[in-house]
Amino acid sequence: MAEAHEEELFDVLTKTGEKTGIRKPRGDVHRDGDYHRAVHVWIFSESTQELLLQCRADCKDSWPGLWDISSAGHISAGDSSLITARRELHEELGLALPMDAFEFIFVFLQECVINDGKFVNNEFNDVYLVTTLSPIPMEAFTLQDTEVSAVKYISWVEYKSLLTKEDPEYVPYDVSGQYGQLFDIIEKRYKENTEARSLILQKQLRRYAPIYLDTELNGLTEADKEALVLLIKAAKVIDDIFYLQVWYSNPTLRDWLKQRCDISDLDKLKWMYYVINKSPWSCLDENKAFLTTADSAIRLLPESAKPIPGWKGLEYRAAFPMQKPPGANFYPPDMDKMEFELWKSNLSEEQQEVATGFFNVIRRHSESNLDSSSLYGTFGSTNQVKVPIHDLFIVPFSHEYKPFLVKASELLTKAGDITDCASLKRLLKARADAFLSNDYYESDIAWMELDSKLDITIGPYETYEDTLFGYKATFEAFIGIRDDKATSQVKLFGDHLQMLEQNLPLDDIYKSKEVAAAPIRVIQLVYNAGDVKGPQTVAFNLPNDERIVKDRGTSMVMLKNISEAKFKHILQPIAGVCVIEEQRKHVNFESFFTHTICHECCHGIGPHTIVLPNGQESTVRLELQELHSALEEAKADIVGLWALKFFVNQGLLPKNLIKSMHVSFLAGCFRSIRFGLEEAHGKGQALQFNWLFEKGAFVLHFDGTFSVDFSKVDGAVESLSREILTIQAKGDKTAARSLLQKYGIMTKPLQLAMEKLEKIEVPVDVAPVFCTADKILEEKR
Questions:
Q1: Which keywords does UniProt give here (predicted)?
Q2: What is the CA radius of gyration of the chain?
Q3: Which of 126, 232, 388, 638 is most buried, by the most CB atoms less than 10 A from its CB?
Q4: Whole-angstrom distance, CA of residue 215 vs CA of residue 10
Q5: pLDDT at residue 387 in the model
Q6: Which top CATH class is 9-190?
Q7: How far is Cα 161 from Cα 179, in angstroms, rounded to an integer?
Q8: In 3D, which of 479, 471, 476 has the Cα closest to residue 450?
Q9: Nearest CA to 728 among 640, 646, 618?
Q10: Is 112 exposed, middle or buried (0-12, 13-18, 19+ CB in 10 A)?
């Protein structure tokens, strides 16, 4: 980093890496031993298995003349990690690389004292890996002489050995400690056993039972059949948006894996499992990566470095981190919560509402500046690319995903012109407009009022992917044929929401006096797209917009053919293994499906818009942030079970449902927990199981099976319902965290059940094959 006339300022951190709000000059920070941040960037040549090292200039105040990291530098006060990494690489080595070349691999805390105690370095280093196909020619580098005197490539094995021996020519790193992760990652990544990896992927794939949806189109008019083709095409566009929402290089990875899927059996397995997860992170394995950057796409940058005759340019792997980013692609990858909150605090009240809203992303000015000047020779220097005081800004979905949304809007408009159903026509026109205006209110109302044999849900809805705050919505699409008979049978539940609200196990002060009846539609699914990765939903309750929930309530859609498949392939086998023999007869589809209906109904009751102790109006989602999804799923589940018993007591449901609903719920606990505790439904279900087990409502027997104690279950269900509803009503994030930390965990009884199910390979979920949709599109080619 070039010496500036004015001494560089650093953000001073705590010993655990959080910002203190204090900024100090660089010299004072190293004199006083203050904790601060920096970046390390390693360039790795895949073909030669070599790391690039730089020789530090003799004028450096630390480790002069020694061989060190490819590129490194401090993060100046107010700067971000990834921007600094990109800038340092350009300044020191003359390489201008895009953000998808940088793989964040770990944070390294370096604590040392050198120069006779005059230089104290307490530094949190964000470590990045740039993977190139082959070594970059020496002539292509432009070295910054005040920082770097030379560069060289060296085998990572040899380099590790030199560090282990503490060779005096190399800056020391403890390879048996934190920094050993770099070498462990490279070794594991490139010592791949193809056969072993194929077996692992095959086992992962077997957790999903394929189901073939050959849905009948009986009852559709010819006009609606024509519209259906356009709606499926629009849903495929929604898929493209979702891939981009997960991670910025995800679409590139998808295309690369698809192109290569026929090269080998392993490539085919990679593609098959990727299609289920829609990312390189496995939904059923706590989002652990099943691919690495070494599996990713190769990209060519002809102008990233000094041009060399005969060299076509730098080829690199489009990177993704091993740990799934909590903010997905909704926020800058190096943004933390504190930065967002500090920025938000400087916004007006109206702007704050937008910043925490569903339908936008957060980006950096400095990132845009670098991307717009990233060709070799024009990539801005530290002085040329200023980081604004407030670097973050808001981009609406209608702008961020404009090419996709314009296309989807056109398809919906054409479908709306074709259909002869008035309410469907209204919905499609309204949603087509919303895609371009970014205002979804009217189209959400139109969706709630949809009365059509051809049923569609399409747009941005759920916030599960945003585990940083739970603010941002992902795009999804569900297309189905309404099951008129089943729809008429479930009307009872939606019509009695106000009665449920008034009788909730919750203090009256928190209850809503007006809850609208919730329309319920039962459909046979034809096609889904977008945020439908991993475990498949059996129902949904929308919209999530608190304004509409407050004014109009919600509407529910039940996917009956998916529910039937899950019961047959998953819940029945689970009951056969985990439920005590004399209670297995109580597990039936009616109870499973009826509880699913109540679960969705209960999303529409209880606290949503709330008043905080200081009198300020807020929402449960805003107050609980990243904890909201798991607690809301637990609420809908457990209050749904309470609601079933309430309906029985009111004479609205038969008494013979009581035992079957509780035993079916017990079996369902094991089904949902297998989704993983990083997933909202799985974590919420673990909370419920462990609470009920602690209260004696669920009992473990000597043979490893479980049963329901019918004398204790009602009290346990009501007490947990009250606990969760009260936390939501108060917007008490501390209590929510405490509850989830205590109960939303993998306990020994749960682990026992999980191991039994894994041993006999009961599927965890289903993977739909859309036969009808494929046939329709094939006929229209």
A1: Hydrolase, Metal-binding
A2: 28
A3: 638
A4: 61
A5: 43
A6: alpha beta
A7: 13
A8: 479
A9: 618
A10: exposed
